[in-house]
Design a protein that fits this description.
Elements lengths: L1 E11 L26 H8 L5 H11 L3 E3 L3 E7 L4 H17 L4 E6 L11 H12 L5 E5 L7 H5 L3 E4 L8 H16 L5 E7 L16 H11 L4 E7 L13 E7 L2 H17 L11 H10 L10 E4 L15 H9 L4 E7 L1 H10 L4 E6 L15 E11 L2 E3 L9 E3 L3 E5 L3 E6 L9 H4 L10 E4 L5 H5 L5 E4 L31
Parallel strand pairs: 1-2, 1-3, 1-4, 4-5, 5-6, 10-18, 10-19, 11-17, 11-18
Antiparallel strand pairs: 7-9, 8-9, 12-13, 13-16, 14-15, 16-17
Helix pairs in contact: 2-6, 3-4, 7-8, 9-10
Bound molecules: zinc ion.
């Protein structure tokens, strides 16, 4: 057996100012750079990891298949992908397809990639593959934030999506898709798919699968696999994308049974539509939320910290990770025993490194990347303190998300103001893993407060430790105030932008 395996992942925030050149792509979806991996280097990087590619490689090795892995390219969310970057990644995959002789193609994609020229980067890739090779079965694993288009389904054989958010089932999802593909190659099943969408933009802060209603919706998907579906997936979608098909969708794969696939698809879409109000998020004003956090009793022995979420500026949703409104208010408010992760500012990191450990410094941090599509202003913030830590910023994830995968925050420092320990990093990394802190010499469990530039993924590695969570509305390219965004291309009307109960 000969299998083609590849990864192309980007979640595009069309409101983000953060550029997406080829150099932003790397072997990991969770970090930027230093460029994709190819061939053997990609296989070495992903073999044995809890990632989608890790699952495909395990399947290929189990089947004693010959593996061709032309490229593994993932980048943290940012503005639409440069055409040159997309053309490079797509052509690496298509050139391999054109060699021919494959029994199956297994793709680890995201599903919300927008390029300068295409609203559905994945659909365009699959169209090109099918134009070269009309027959070889294709398995695709998509992220729960996929915004589905017809070409993303019609040009694949089997599709499966994540059932968890935080995404701790990237491996399981690719395993499901890959195993189905092997069965299809052997002629044991004849997959057929039905997909559809409903006009709703579930709020990302309301999409976590620990919470109603997505918990129940995803559980239903899992049960459908025991009721005759080969795979059932509900995609909550990525709303920070002004494209026609942004929003919630579903796809069901059955063994040649179109009626069943359509019936189960409709059931998922109907259930989600009924729950649309539960997917709406209500913003609490920053000063009120901060006052509430200040009034909370300090954690008792054995309790973890109070988590303060700077959720408008999550780099894993297109945020610049350098807005300073929330951090500035925390400093002003006098909160004590705080760790803040993190401000992206390579320049300030260099200055702190030059000053050296123990030096007293005053740095102007953040506010460097302008956000033309986001109302409000995020000026740089002056911070004064001691350089506590200088680190390489490299670690392997403890998990459960991307266990074993190398994360690289770039050169990183911690500035201790006396009350707040502020991490400054040189590469966009969302704090979804405890090692973000441990690698910088901070024990978050010893803190009264931990500020995180994150929305939901922090829960993967740090959720269990939180005594309480307070959402802090700041400023950023993944603003939770959708009414501040200008949508021109998304299909209308769409809930909650246009429809009742906004
Ligand atoms: Zn996602």
């Amino acid at each position: 057996m000969r299998l083609l395996i590849a990864m192309m992942k980007h979640e595009t925030n069309t409101f983000s100012p953060v550029p997406t050149p080829l150099a932003r792509f790397g072997p990991s979806f969770g970090k930027s750079g230093p460029g994709p991996l190819y061939g053997e280097a990609a296989i070495r990087a992903f073999r044995g990891t809890g990632s989608g590619l890790g699952a495909y490689l395990d399947i290929a090795e189990r089947e004693k298949a010959e593996i061709v892995l032309p490229i593994a390219a993932g980048a943290p969310p940012s503005r639409p992908v440069d055409d040159a970057a997309f053309e490079h990644i797509a052509s690496q995959i298509c050139d391999a397809v054109a060699q021919g002789g494959f029994d199956g193609i297994m793709l680890d994609l995201h599903g919300a990639m927008v390029t300068e020229s295409f609203e559905d980067g994945e659909g365009e890739l699959l169209r090109r593959i099918r134009a070269l090779d009309a027959k070889t079965p294709i398995a695709v694993a998509y992220d729960m934030h996929a915004n589905l288009y017809e070409a993303m389904i019609a040009n694949a054989t089997v599709v499966s999506g994540y059932r968890t958010y935080p995404h701790v089932d990237t491996y399981d999802t690719a395993k499901r898709a890959g195993d189905l593909l092997i069965r299809a190659i052997r002629g044991e099943v004849r997959p057929m798919m039905a997909w559809g969408n409903v006009p709703m933009l579930p709020h990302v802060m309301r999409q976590g699968t620990g919470d109603h209603p997505n918990r129940e919706l995803q559980e239903r998907c899992a049960v459908m696999a025991r009721e005759g579906a080969l795979a059932a997936s509900l995609f909550t979608g990525f709303p920070h994308a002004d494209i026609a098909n942004a929003g919630l969708s579903a796809v069901v794969v059955t063994d040649g049974d179109r009626d069943l696939a359509e019936r189960l698809r409709d059931e998922l879409l109907d259930r989600a539509w009924v729950e649309r109000e539960a997917f709406v998020y209500k913003v609490e004003p920053l000063t009120e939320a901060l006052a509430r956090a200040r009034a909370m009793p300090a954690p008792a022995a054995g309790e973890g910290p109070i988590v303060l979420l700077d959720h408008y500026d999550n780099c894993a949703s297109g945020g610049t990770m350098d807005t300073t409104i929330v951090l500035g208010e925390i400093l002003k408010s006098g909160l004590d025993n705080v760790a803040a992760f993190a401000v992206y500012d390579p320049e300030a990191v260099s200055q702190a490194i030059a000053a050296g450990i123990g030096a007293q410094v005053t740095l102007s941090v953040g506010g460097k990347l302008k956000m033309p599509q986001i109302p409000g202003d995020s000026p740089p913030l002056d911070i004064s303190g001691t350089v506590k830590t200088i680190a390489s910023g490299r670690f392997r994830n403890k998990g459960p998300m991307g266990r074993g995968v190398l994360t690289d925050m770039g050169p990183s420092v911690v500035i201790d103001t006396g009350k707040v320990e502020i991490a400054l990093i040189s590469s966009h990394v969302e704090p979804s893993d405890l090692n973000c802190f441990y690698s910088l010499g901070i024990d978050p469990l010893q803190k009264r407060y931990v500020m995180l530039k994150s929305r939901v993924h922090w829960r993967a590695g740090l959720g269990a430790m939180a005594k309480a969570v307070v959402d802090l509305a700041g400023i950023g390219a993944c603003t939770s105030d959708y009414s501040s965004l200008t949508f021109n291309k998304v299909r209308r009307p769409i809930y909650p932008l246009d429809l009742p109960n906004r």
